[in-house]
Design a protein that fits this description.
There is one protein chain. The chain is α+β, with helices and mostly antiparallel strands. A five-stranded mixed beta sheet has the order 1-2-5-4-3, covered by helices on one side. It has five helices and five strands, in the order H-E-H-E-E-E-E-H-H-H. The chain has a single domain, classed as Nucleotidyltransferase, domain 5, CATH 3.30.420.10.
């Protein structure tokens, strides 16, 4: 609601999620938007944390057979393989051999599935790709976007806090970085 007040409106809500979101998991989000009077679509981008190794694509035009970083392969309706590695030109070596599976779904204001457009698909996959380039530990591209990687890091660190509160010095800083 603070965002809407500050920016006049919201056009959509994009959620990056580590698994396919069930109707039970999406219901509180849709209900909250309804209570706030926001009739905006919710785009859920499922990014499998594990690299996809069941379906692999080869580029037969190059000796190492590895597709370039950013290569997108459709595998089902609104489901894609994204080669998110460090091979930007032929001859480069890459760190991440397997692609990341990305699924895209759209919920409309009543919680029912909506039709996602090709431009939205392109924009969402590009967003996943660009967010994989933002990583505080390295300038190297990661195979997972920070929207999946950082919450995983926080989940690993959080049990080390004593009690259930974040210390005062961590409330206004990026302590997990």
């Amino acid at each position: 609601m603070h965002y809407v007040v500050e920016h006049d409106k919201a056009e959509r809500l994009i959620i990056h999620y580590y698994k396919t979101m069930s109707k039970r998991e999406s219901k509180p989000i849709v209900d909250m938007l309804f209570r706030l009077g926001l009739t905006i679509p919710v785009i859920i981008v499922t990014i499998n944390k594990t690299e996809e190794s069941e379906i692999v694509v080869f580029d037969n035009n190059v000796p190492d057979k590895m597709p370039l970083s950013g290569t997108i392969i459709p595998i089902k309706a609104n489901e894609f393989l994204l080669y998110n590695n460090s091979k930007y030109k032929q001859g480069d070596k890459c760190d991440y051999l397997f692609p990341v599976k990305v699924k895209i779904a759209k919920l409309i204001s009543n919680g029912e599935k909506g039709e996602i457009t090709n431009p939205e698909v392109t924009e969402m996959i590009n967003l996943v790709y660009q967010l994989s380039r933002m990583y505080w530990k390295s300038v190297k591209q990661q195979n997972l976007p920070i929207t999946i990687k950082y919450p995983e890091m926080v989940a690993e660190i959080a049990p080390n806090f004593i009690g259930s509160d974040i210390p005062d010095e961590g409330k206004n800083s990026l302590w997990f970085l």
